[in-house]
Specification:
Blueprint lengths: L3 H6 L5 E4 L2 E8 L3 E5 L5 E5 L3 E5 L2 H6 L7 E4 L7 E3 H5 L3 H16 L3 H6 L5 H16 L5 H6 L5 H17 L1 H18 L1 H5 L11
Parallel strand pairs: 5-6
Antiparallel strand pairs: 1-2, 1-5, 2-3, 3-4, 6-7
Length: about 210
């Protein structure tokens, strides 16, 4: 997953919004941004307090930008700034947050261990298989990129779909875990979410 700073990096030298002021972005740190305030000094701002100013909602969509960090110019005679969330709605990655929390809770691990700890505990393996499959089929990540989230190689992601299918047919407890997540998936992504698992022998959604 791209970090938030990487989106801001594309706007170096351009104005961004900070506390209702448009200030040029002149530097990017690990969790902060440097903004020019018109004097020899600069402002160090927390990333979460800043928003990218896009010229249109199409720009936000084209760059696959999280809508929570973007403000869009209306381009009309008033040329006001409007939240991208208002114009577009939450992005795919933002809609995934609830599912991510659900998967982490089902795994029984902390968020840090969920992404970083090597384990064969079946609940964790199940949740990671769902996670990789969602990122591959909905976020359109490659096999390698979806597996890299957990520090694994592309072969792990390739096998995840088949393992989901096989385990679902064989294990009642697993079916309950998957069905619980699947309900959230469809609520968050609609038909696109349901179709993400089309092709598995037990799901047909048209």
């Amino acid at each position: 997953m791209r970090n938030i700073q990487s989106y801001f990096a594309e706007y170096l030298g351009k104005p961004i919004l900070y506390k209702d002021k448009e200030l040029p972005l002149i530097g990017i740190g690990l969790k902060t941004l440097s903004l020019y305030n018109g004097t020899t000094a600069h402002i160090t701002a927390n990333v979460e307090d800043c928003k990218i100013i896009a010229d249109s909602k199409e720009e936000v969509i084209e760059k696959a930008m999280p809508t929570a960090i973007a403000i869009v110019r209306t381009g009309d005679e008033n040329n006001i700034l409007v939240s991208a969330v208002t114009l577009i709605g939450p992005s795919k990655i933002e809609r995934f947050k609830e599912i991510e929390t659900q998967l982490i809770n089902l795994s029984g691990l902390s968020k840090e261990d969920y992404y970083g700890k090597r384990t064969r505990k079946r609940e964790v393996v199940w949740c990671r298989q769902i996670h990789m499959t969602i990122f591959r089929r909905i976020m359109k990540y490659s096999f390698a990129r979806s597996a890299a989230i957990f520090g694994r190689d592309h072969a792990t992601a390739i096998s995840s779909g088949k393992k989901i299918d096989d385990t679902y047919l064989e294990d009642r407890e697993w079916r309950e875990v998957f069905n619980d997540v699947f309900v959230t998936l469809v609520r968050k992504y609609g038909k696109e979410g349901a179709r993400a698992f089309n092709g598995l022998t037990w799901i047909k959604y048209e």
